[in-house]
Amino acid sequence: MTIEHSRPRRRWKGLSLAVAIAALMVAVIIVWPGRAYAAQSVAVCNPTATAGCVNGILQDAQRKPIAGATVTLSGRESATATTDPEGKWAFSVSSDGSYTVALDPSLVAKYQLKSSKATVEIKKGDFTESRQVVRFDEIQADSTPAPKSSGSTSSSASSSSSAAQSSADSSSQHFGARVWQQLYSGIIFGLMLGLMSVGMNLVYGTTGLSSFSHGEQVTLGGLMAYVGTQLLHWPLAVSALFAVAVGALSGWVQNDLVWAPLRRKHVGPMQQMIVTIGLSMALQYVYQFFFGGNVNSVTISVPPSITIGPITTDAPTLVSALIAIVVILAITFFLYRTRLGRATRAVSDNSSLAAASGINVEQVVRVVWILSTGLAALSGVLMALYLNGVAWNTGALMLLLMFSAVTLGGLGTANGALVGSLIIGIVADTSSLFIPNDMRYASALAILIIVLLVRPQGLFGKQQRVG
After folding, report:
1. pTM for this predicted structure
2. Looking at residues 193-222, what average pLDDT do you find?
3. How many CB atoms lie within 10 A of CB 376?
4. Which of 31, 36, 21, 41 is nearest to 304 (CA)?
């Protein structure tokens, strides 16, 4: 009798918590503060996953550098720079959009430049390749120098040949640097994808449910980090802990209000999966309603670049990678060295046998849901820092990659999800060297199809015996 009355109480507690979370989201959106963006003037700019570049060289009609001139950048972010002795200038920007680069009009007249303004476009998501070069050294039509005598033909041809050879060597070096840069980006992306995928795989292993709403848990973490840093003005570390706590709490509420009742009513995994599809769509539109359709930046400052050999990165990316590695190691320790972790693996192998041996299966599943959504929220925070923003559909865009990772590694195996995520991340990023950047995720989906045809159980999965 006591057990029967405790269930409705737990449901009402979970419902109250859900209402409280929704009320908090409404409150912080109502007090939306204004946001300011600032670019940075840098000596040398190398595009990274979180920063694009607008740079150039200022020369006169005779191709001589103009030093000490002021260059102004305006648009989504603004800054000013002064050309160096070689006439070079550079800006690092963290937001996508159109930017206008302007010169003092007196320079245009003095050095007979073609124009005092130029507009460039920086596209979000392509920062690893986004470098816009602006030149103002095109001379005006009425000041074109007279052609030289024909006696300089041989000299010009030799000069052109040398320039072509130098250009080919430079192109080869640039491609090699891009290979290393994309390989590094793929490893970082794979680590973050691993945090997302391992939680999804744990849920599948213990309940048999393939959750299509797991991507929205990733989005929730990124959005809560945005709320903490930009709306509540908390430090980034505190905002990250807040996002993880909200994500873990949402997993507990979901399990008690939705999934546990469905399991008690013996609703099959296929019907539960359909519920996750509906939940995914509902959460996406809730996020869009409260946070809009734009990309929301967790931080608005541009971190200084760090060059390690041919790789350009920054401190937040390195810290995010370190956090991902530490958490992955902690998950491995939990699964293989703790009593609850061994119980989780036992439930994943055979829930009926685990229950018969005295393991509280429902308690294990509840812990798995909390752990899964907490990890998803953490990956959402790290992904928002890596991509320099989070949108209402960020997690949904990652969902197919997560399914590809867990399928490649093996459904229900945590280590398989980690290995599969690294492979998917590296393949997706390095494939952009040969195919258009917008199609780089297609290579990951191609891997999914090949794995299903050749080894359906995945790299670490166990083959199911039928019959």
Report:
1. 0.68
2. 93
3. 33
4. 41
